[in-house]
């Protein structure tokens, strides 16, 4: 109802926005506005079938106490990264966090496909409601708004009235978004034929025709996979990117003493390829 004023409008349905909604539920009226029409989770995403992380993946416990507390509250288990026990992954993929939180929230408070274009006060008084308008012209009125999206995206996409200070706008525009523009490529295999360690968790040398800069064992309890971090053009085909990643790691194996694996063509035996492109809008698009 465009005429109803909620206490809080949350802009962004990633982990931050969902966590805020979970804390507000039952205490104040709220609505969550997510630009994506089909999914929540922001930069958390799993492959549809096997639960391979295609977005953010790791947590570091017990140092990250808030995440540890959230995992416990949501009854989500973790497991050590196969080739680096100092790192921890989440059973069911990190996207399980978003799924579990969303299950606790009233669906009618989750407004999908609402890309906020402007945030304005209805009059000059600080107590007047905010009007958040979408790109399609839909409106939401709220006493307060929380923006759980990258600051740079706010600076580029949302018009504020009254305007924010120049200092704040410059800070927002110059902020960086971690892993923006990185394509994660996961290759699924019938079995793990490589030794854990330097063969599966290492930096790679990027360059022309060499898009990957890191690889790790992305396996879950049910699926064996190698996952690559790449700097690839969004126009790259799945086939081309997978082939380039295989060629890069094959060269690395040859250099690091895993020549037998390289000669046996282990890397060419993948059965499925899964890609996810992370951009500044925090939308992930994937294809298999």
Automatic annotation (TrEMBL):
<dbReference type="InterPro" id="IPR036188">
    <property type="entry name" value="FAD/NAD-bd_sf"/>
</dbReference>
<feature type="domain" description="Amine oxidase">
    <location>
        <begin position="87"/>
        <end position="250"/>
    </location>
</feature>
<dbReference type="InterPro" id="IPR002937">
    <property type="entry name" value="Amino_oxidase"/>
</dbReference>
<protein>
    <recommendedName>
        <fullName>monoamine oxidase</fullName>
        <ecNumber>1.4.3.4</ecNumber>
    </recommendedName>
</protein>
<dbReference type="InterPro" id="IPR050703">
    <property type="entry name" value="Flavin_MAO"/>
</dbReference>
<comment type="similarity">
    <text>Belongs to the flavin monoamine oxidase family.</text>
</comment>
<dbReference type="GO" id="GO:0097621">
    <property type="term" value="F:monoamine oxidase activity"/>
</dbReference>
<dbReference type="Pfam" id="PF13450">
    <property type="entry name" value="NAD_binding_8"/>
</dbReference>
<dbReference type="Pfam" id="PF01593">
    <property type="entry name" value="Amino_oxidase"/>
</dbReference>
